[in-house]
Write a structure and sequence with these properties.
Chains: A mainly alpha, B mainly alpha, C alpha/beta, D mainly alpha
Radius of gyration of chain C: 17 Å
CATH class of chain C: Alpha Beta
Structural class of chain D: mainly alpha
Order of helices and strands of chain D: HHHHHH
Radius of gyration of chain D: 23 Å
Strand order of the largest sheet of chain C: 6-7-8-3-9-10
Oligomer: heterotetramer
Distance between the termini of chain D: 45 Å
Number of helices of chain D: 6
Strand content of chain C: 15-25%
Distance between the termini of chain C: 35 Å
Largest sheet of chain C: 6 strands, mixed
CATH superfamily of chain C: P-loop containing nucleotide triphosphate hydrolases
Largest sheet of chain D: none
Strand content of chain D: under 5%
Number of domains of chain C: 1
Number of strands of chain D: 0
Helix content of chain D: over 70%
Chain lengths: ~45, ~230, ~240, ~250
């Protein structure tokens, strides 16, 4: 497949960016909920 | 009440003359800098106009936008000098009147500035006015000024109390005024007959600028209150 | 106005995330000159700004001039005059122009504006001087003239005596007494006990964001030690869009 | 809940299916789907570019609607403000991806990274506008102030979109360049290629919903922490008063 560099690259950029962002959000979630008692979580 | 606020702003400007002594020279210098940057390129063969003549409308409006940033910051600096913004809130001045007052004062200063910039373009860039295009030129000049003054006052109010407001204002304001930059530039190009564009081609662009002015006039009246209030 | 001018019950107001006012209870009757006494950073300025309707009521209840602070805090503002550390004037405009502008925001006639200016002794050459060139005392008097011109019924003054010489302070006190005689109510926040004390009809201590009725009038109040809380940002800074 | 996190059984299921979607996208997008007659392999980039563009636009619609609901509903529930903020943040991420993949695709098709095409220009404009929106969200003040200010800016941005789109389209019509192909829409797709595009959209939608839920819950947790912080600070402040009294 010619131009594979560009094509696979575009997938890597897209999915990579989403993965990094997801990781940052989850890390921030862990920090935020660490000292939050069970009842105070509006979503549970 | 709006007239009261507008007269106050203009009197403060008349007394302090910051726009006249600082913003106007700044705009002029920006026009000269553009010339430094663009003048040495060879003149394009086809239309006989020099490059500067071709891009003059765009440069006028770019210089206007940069000056708008300074005028908006100045407009809210006079409030912040001695805590007048808080005093305006305590005085219970109706936000709509405050918005219309400050926007019209800003519009007056901006209109004057744009006229001088057009003069600078005639002087420096060899732009020629075209009799037929004057109506379109004046219409675009006034409508764009109202639109820019409205959106400038609106985002100026938001940034007024915030930390890092000097850098927040350009970030918020410049993307928003893109339609005016595009529309007004094309409309003035048609008015001046750049590249022999017909005057009729300019009127749809004037439409864009007019819709922008109406949209942000109304948007400003509705949004200024919540944005300015603590 | 029969009811109390100010009624606060456990009012809490927040600056950023710091509860500058942590449960203030206060009642002020019409015509009073109330002294809010307390060290810097105790929450005096926040209390005044809350009563002026500038700060949202985070918790508790509050009514000023009959307006509920939770829902009508924008409606209370035209009736209140707040004079903070900064006078809220336009430095490039003259004294007369400033008083005329602020009076006009409350619909004052030119006659009322002229009366306010003369009452504060800002006559002759002084009236046409730009505020930028005034002394602290003159600027303070101009700000007070604006309050008079706006016919504010509740005066909230934050350290009004700061930076004034003896003569200017006497004039200030005279103006405040005149204002209450004319039906206004005055709340003065100050940590200068001897000046404000002589003026006040009642004194309330503000300690760490809460109010305590001082024991008796001026005499019995003992100087408060400075609370040693280091992390406490002073709330004396002007409260822009924090 | 052993490890503290904003996850619940539902979000874990959602996360799993999102990953499944991505797997299918990789398989179909890069593997099974045929190359296009005249664009050859570069059509595969569209299976990422088009979904991320559509999801970005969806995200900004959600932000605008949530901001509108927050402002005009009587109860002013902060949940809507958090939804608007979370959706805008994910929207900016997807818009960034759209721009990058758009440039890569443009490089292969037109030979140039950036082309002042009406659609790309509007996308770039939206990207900058919503970065401004996120900057406004960080201005501080109480949650209500943040919510009101952000909602107003979000609605102003919506007011701006048709204006920009109209002026940019009018502007581009002046320079009608004769490109045979314009990104998405005009590219004729059928059978397996269309299916790959569909897989892309499903995968990205699942990712979007999963990200927004977690981002919103994180915001809710942080807001709750702040409010709890307020109680603690109140207690501390009150304690201070008693120590002064005693001292």
């Amino acid at each position: 497949m010619e131009d594979a560099g560009f094509i696979v690259g575009s997938y890597a950029v897209a999915l990579g960016a989403i993965a990094v962002y997801a990781w940052r959000v989850l890390a921030r979630a862990r920090r935020a909920t660490a000292d939050l008692p069970e009842d105070a979580k509006p979503w549970t | 009440m709006a007239g009261l606020v507008a007269r106050k702003d203009l009197r403060v400007e008349g007394r302090g003359r910051v726009a006249l002594n600082q913003v106007l020279p700044f705009a002029f210098i920006v026009m000269v800098m553009f010339a430094f940057a663009l003048e040495r390129l060879p003149t394009p063969a086809n239309t006989g106009d020099t490059l500067l003549e071709l891009v003059a409308p765009g440069l006028i409006w770019l210089a206007t936008l940069f000056s708008l940033l300074l005028l908006v910051q100045r407009s809210f600096a006079i409030e912040a000098d001695d805590g007048a913004l808080d005093a305006l809130r305590v005085a219970g001045v109706d936000p709509v009147a405050l918005f219309l007052g400050k926007a019209s004062a800003l519009a007056v200063q901006l209109a004057a500035l744009e006229a001088v910039l057009l003069g600078a373009a005639l002087l420096l860039y060899g732009t020629e006015l075209r009799a037929g295009g004057v109506v379109l030129l004046v219409a675009t000049w006034l409508t764009a000024t109202c639109g820019l003054a409205a959106v400038g006052t609106l985002y100026g109010g938001l940034a007024a109390g915030a930390r890092g407001r000097e850098t927040l204002l350009p970030l918020l304001l410049l993307p928003v005024v893109a339609p005016v930059l595009i529309g007004a530039t094309r409309a003035v190009e048609a008015a001046l007959g750049i590249e022999d564009t017909a005057i009729a081609d300019g009127w749809p662009w004037f439409g864009v600028v007019a819709v922008f002015a109406v949209a942000f006039g109304a948007g400003g009246v509705l949004a200024f209150g919540p944005l300015i209030d603590e | 106005m029969d009811g109390a001018v100010i009624e606060l019950v456990d009012a809490v107001a927040v600056l950023g995330r710091f509860p500058a006012l942590a449960g203030a209870t206060l009642t002020v009757a019409p015509g009073e000159i109330l002294l809010l006494r307390g060290p810097n950073g105790a929450g005096k300025t926040t209390l005044l700004r809350l009563c002026a309707g500038l700060l949202p009521l985070a918790r508790g209840q509050g009514r000023v001039l009959g307006f509920d602070l939770a829902t009508q805090r924008t409606a209370v503002r035209p009736h209140v005059g707040l004079l903070g550390h900064r006078n809220g004037l336009y430095l490039d405009l003259t004294v007369a122009e400033n008083v005329a502008f602020w009076g006009a925001t409350a619909g004052a006639t030119t006659g009322e504006v002229a009366a306010a200016v003369t009452r504060l002794g800002l006559v002759g050459r002084l009236a046409d001087l730009e505020v930028r060139r005034l002394s602290a005392g003159q600027a303070r008097r101009t700000a007070l003239a604006c309050l008079v011109a706006r016919r504010a019924r509740l005066w909230l003054l934050d350290e009004p005596h700061a930076g004034l010489d003896a003569a200017a302070r006497d004039e200030l006190d005279a103006t405040l007494r005149e204002a209450t005689a004319a039906g206004a109510t005055v709340v003065v926040a100050s940590h200068e006990l001897e000046r404000a004390g002589a003026l006040a009809t009642r004194t309330v201590d503000v300690v760490a964001g809460q109010t305590r009725d001082a024991i008796g009038g001026l005499g019995a109040g003992r100087p408060l030690s400075q609370p040693s809380d280091a992390r406490q940002p002073s709330d004396e800074s002007d409260g822009g869009l924090a | 809940m052993t490890t503290p996190s904003t996850g619940t059984r539902a979000t874990r299921a959602l996360g799993g299916s999102a990953l499944g979607g991505v797997g299918w996208l990789l398989a179909f997008g890069l593997g099974f789907s045929p190359s296009d007659r005249n664009q050859a392999e570069s059509v595969r980039i569209l299976y990422v570019h088009v979904p991320s563009a559509w999801l970005a636009y969806l995200a900004f619609v959600v932000t605008a609607v949530a901001s509108g609901v927050y402002l005009f509903s009587k109860r002013h529930a902060l949940g809507w403000d958090r939804l608007a903020g979370a959706s805008a943040e994910v929207g900016v991420l997807f818009m960034g991806i759209t721009l990058v993949t758009g440039m890569l695709w443009g490089r292969l098709t037109w030979g140039v990274f950036w082309e002042w095409d009406a659609r790309l220009t509007t996308t770039a404009f939206l990207f900058v506008t919503y970065i401004g929106y996120l900057a406004v969200r960080r201005l501080g003040g109480t949650h209500e102030q943040r919510a009101r200010r952000s909602a107003v800016i979000a609605l102003l941005a919506v007011l701006e979109i048709p204006l920009v789109h109209w002026s940019v389209r009018l502007w581009r019509s002046l320079h009608q360049e004769a490109t045979v192909l314009r990104p998405d829409g005009e590219v004729k797709m059928d059978g397996l290629m269309l299916f790959s595009l569909f897989v892309g959209i499903v995968a990205f939608t699942l990712l979007y919903v999963w990200l927004v839920i977690h981002r919103q819950r994180t915001m809710a947790a942080e807001d709750a922490l702040e409010d709890r912080g307020l109680d603690a600070a109140l207690a501390a402040r009150r304690a201070e008063a008693t120590t002064v009294e005693v001292g």
